[in-house]
Amino acid sequence: MVGDAENHVAGRTIAAIASPPGRGGVGVVRVSGPLAQAIGLTVSGRGDLQPRYCHFATFRDSRGEPLDQGLVVFFPGPRSFTGEDVVELHGHGGPAVLNGILQAAFDAGAEAAEAGEFTRRAFLNDRMDLSQAEAVAELIEADSLAGARAALRSLEGEFGRQVEQLAEELADLRVFVEGSLDFPDEDVDFLATGDVDGRLSAVRERLTRLRERASTGVRLSEGFLVVLAGRPNAGKSSLLNCLAGRESAIVTERAGTTRDILREKVALDGFHVELADTAGLRETDDPVEREGVRRARDLVERADLVFFLVDSQQGWTSEDAREWGRLPEDRRVALWTKADLDAAEGAPAISCTGEPGVGPLEEELRRRLPLQGGGDALGARQRHLEVLDRVATELASAAGTLQNYGSGDLVAQDLRRAHEALGEITGRVHSDDLLGRIFATFCIGK
Ligand SMILES: Nc1nc2c(c(=O)[nH]1)N(C=O)[C@@H](CNc1ccc(C(=O)N[C@@H](CCC(=O)O)C(=O)O)cc1)CN2
Ligand SMILES: Nc1nc2c(ncn2[C@@H]2O[C@H](COP(=O)(O)OP(=O)(O)OP(=O)(O)O)[C@@H](O)[C@H]2O)c(=O)[nH]1
Ligand SMILES: [Mg+2]
């Protein structure tokens, strides 16, 4: 299905509390759809609403009982967030008041908005493409300024424009390659004359660059998972506490203290790093500890980085060697602990209680995690990376075929698939199912 406004008949008028639950200075009930203006008039008791103007009013319920003093704003479509008539009722930010105002809007003809429905309407009414709609959610979810900036770049349309540009270049290439298929008997090698090869490499390079910017954006919002693993008593929980700056995990001199996974978030260069303390790795008959070890091994598989802690007083044992061997090779870093007690060599050494502190661990984090590139990151989601990877695979296949003087048909097919996949990012090509999955993750009122 192709996303255009005709597909969307805005019959229903929707309403929801747009501000977060809880209490705040001000709270907003937002209404969108054909009845918005009438609802604004009814709830505010006013005779008229000047477009895009803040009116002071007393909001009343359907029996005429006063609910709140507030401000009402009317945005006639299409110059509104959703592209439809929108009314905002700004009241005091408490649950009783806002639920009362929302109920008054329902009584005047509105229906409850679904999660993300305002933004979904903005998309369906061509106010924004899908990457922008998703950036709205990224922006709201951002809890670092770097993450918010990346989301804003995408909200302003930067991601969508980059994708569209790639799509146009692919469209040109397709036209050329498909055109050449109509002259199979010509002597001239059409694919060679049009520099299809060169143009394709240029597109692939831009795609790689875009993938990097989007992947940094995903990282900014999702952060990194760093697992502290090691044999019992290595000092994992002490390290977690020290990095978190609070006594999060129980620390004792007994081996096998930790069983559950404990998580603490820290910030590093604008990125979130989630540190996970785990049960000491060993074979044991204790069923509780065994479950802890199982969970630790599971988590290691999902980690971006695993620190394997080794007690420098104990030295590197055969058990350490065995556990180290089970860790993912490309994501493991050995770390001597308790360096205040014993000088260790070979791997970076840290101490939670004395010299050299935990600086060497931070150095390793900076060395091993891709923390750079935040400056031009684009707010994006895992879904976008998957699409870009699919596009890259198709284009790699096209390039391979070209290099081997393979059939133009195959090249055309790969280009078509790549081109179509790109459309899933901006929503040029979308299904109701895709929209359903995307907007279900939004909050009500967004
Ligand atoms: N009170 C309030 N604050 C808000 C929002 C809102 O809906 N209400 N937003 C909701 O997310 C964000 C702002 N986004 C908005 C985007 C477009 C339009 C809008 O009316 N656009 C018209 C007019 C543009 C103009 O005058 O330049 C348009 O695009 O035609 C409004 C809000 C953040 N702050
Ligand atoms: N001197 C010194 N002692 C430490 C340091 N880190 C941990 N310890 C001690 O080592 C012992 C074990 O520390 P934990 O942090 O509980 O070790 P763990 O790896 O979490 O152990 P399990 O949960 O049993 O797997 C405790 O007595 C800590 O006080 C350190 O940097 N210096
Ligand atoms: Mg522990």
Q: Tell me the name of the CATH class of the largest domain.
A: Alpha Beta
Structurally, the number of domains stands at 3
Q: Mean pLDDT, rounded to whole units?
A: 92
At the fourth level of CATH, the homologous superfamily of the largest domain is P-loop containing nucleotide triphosphate hydrolases
The end-to-end span amounts to 24 Å
Task: Please identify, by name, the CATH architecture of the largest domain.
Answer: 3-Layer(aba) Sandwich
- Strand order in space, largest sheet: 3-4-5-2-1-6
Low-confidence stretches: 1-9
Content of β-strand: 15-25%
User: What's the β-strand tally?
Assistant: 11
Largest sheet at a glance? Answer: 6 strands, mixed
Structural class: alpha/beta
The global form is flat
Structure in words:
The chain has helices at residues 36-44, 95-107, 117-124, 130-141, 145-155, 158-181, 190-193, 196-222, 236-244, 287-302, 318-325, 359-368, 382-403, 408-426, 432-439, and strands spanning 14-17, 24-32, 55-60, 66-75, 86-93, 111-112, 224-230, 262-268, 271-277, 305-311, 332-337. The chain is of the alpha/beta class. The structure holds the ligand Nc1nc2c(c(=O)[nH]1)N(C=O)[C@@H](CNc1ccc(C(=O)N[C@@H](CCC(=O)O)C(=O)O)cc1)CN2, guanosine-5'-triphosphate (GTP) and magnesium ion (MG). Residues 230, 232-238, 251-253, 255-258, 279-280, 337-338, 340-341, 351-353 line the site of guanosine-5'-triphosphate. Homodimer. Heterotetramer of two MnmE and two MnmG subunits.
